[in-house]
Design goal:
The protein is mainly α. 63% of the residues lie in helices and 0% in strands. Helix 3 packs parallel to helix 6, helix 4 crosses helix 5 and helix 5 packs across helix 6.
Length: 172
């Protein structure tokens, strides 16, 4: 139920962006596939030509929806369930949930700052690539143009990966 709710909400919101540039049928299919790929942290590029989400780098809605799906998928079902059941009361969270939320926030913040310092990209681009690098693999900027320090930031985030019990990879 959790997966279906996240993926359908993500598909509906992604559709608002994809429908501006694609025919209706394509926009529906791409939105559904994209939401599933983002929540499951698979990062498949189905837009063709190896462009990934580069044409949508300035689309705030699509960037934030994709980031949200990746982050929640990367936190794991136990953490999501605990957030919902405790109504986000920090004192009621288990140690696992506190660690996952703290490490996730720390990695997103540090990754965003380091990418912004090492690359000539927007703040949204730095945040998006920081989120995506941990497990999903989407990109809104061509990675072949990143500097060595920027690539090192991405590699460290990829190595760390997502949380235990999540849909993402890495050492967890």
């Amino acid at each position: 139920i959790t997966t279906v709710c996240f993926e359908l909400a993500g598909a509906a919101l992604s559709f608002l962006s994809f429908s501006r540039t694609r025919p209706l049928g394509d926009a529906i299919c791409i939105s559904l596939f994209h939401a599933v790929a983002a929540f499951n942290n698979s990062g498949f590029d189905i837009l063709g030509g190896g462009t990934n989400l580069i044409p949508y780098r300035d689309d705030l809605l699509l960037n934030l929806v994709t980031c949200g799906l990746i982050v929640f998928g990367g936190m794991g079902f136990l953490v999501i369930r605990e957030i919902v059941s405790t109504k986000f009361r920090w004192k009621k969270f288990s140690m696992h949930t506190k660690i996952v939320l703290t490490v996730t926030a720390g990695l997103l913040l540090s990754g965003t700052l380091l990418l912004k310092l090492t690359e000539n990209i927007s703040w949204m681009g730095a945040f998006f690539n920081s989120v995506s690098a941990r497990t999903a693999g989407f990109s809104t900027y061509p990675l072949k143009e990143f500097t060595t320090p920027g690539l090192l930031v991405l590699i460290v985030l990829m190595f760390i990966g997502a949380s235990p019990g999540s849909t993402g990879g890495g050492i967890k």
